[in-house]
Amino acid sequence: MKSSGMLDSAEKERYKRQLMLIGDEAQSRLREATVFIAGAGGLGCPVALYLAAAGIGRIVIADMDRVEITNLNRQVLFDETSIGTEKSVAVKERLQRLNPHIRVEAITATIDDSSAGTLVGSADIIVDATDNFTTRYSLNRVACRNAVPLVHGAVCGFDGQVATIIPGKTACFKCMFPHPPPTGPAPVIGTTAGIIGMIQANEVIKYITARGSLITGQILLWDGLSATIEYVPAERDPACSECRQLR
What is the reported pLDDT for 244? Predict the structure, then answer.
């Protein structure tokens, strides 16, 4: 990702505090980036919120659902007036009010093997903010096929996990999780979704600006009850059906 053009005075004022940290060039890279966020729920909301605030120039967010009252304990971009609205549309409207300097595209669609490639398009990075393994495997296939990084996140109760996948260099999602767990809704406290979503957003920002070290080759495990983080190594599977062709 290369930056094109200088920041204008309004952008320099808006991003003044982070420009002190990352500089104009990195901010311009954020402005030129396209991020695809799969899911506008408990993880997708904080991811989208903080990436929009940081100045990601183009955010594409896809979700097939409408807002329900049961979402409101953790999906922080919605309120009771949002109930019944398509989630992706509600997120777009909220983000455009937050930051008029960016472009947000809302997609109401199911993400699966037949649609994922088209939906992701030419995105620079994919964020997995979904809650099911079928969709995650579809996103992983697109990431491997297009050689596009994928930032995975998941939550359950007070616990969560994050891993950044760089196709051809790190274990892919299928390497990490070759078999899906039993399906069903998971309990979750809203703060867990917020913490994991912000870690995912931070990974995206670090990748685009080439700052720091990514959570690659390992899985970050967050234990909210003890406020501790553990890292579990994640190795590539030589027999992986999804990424072995990238070796």
Answer: 81
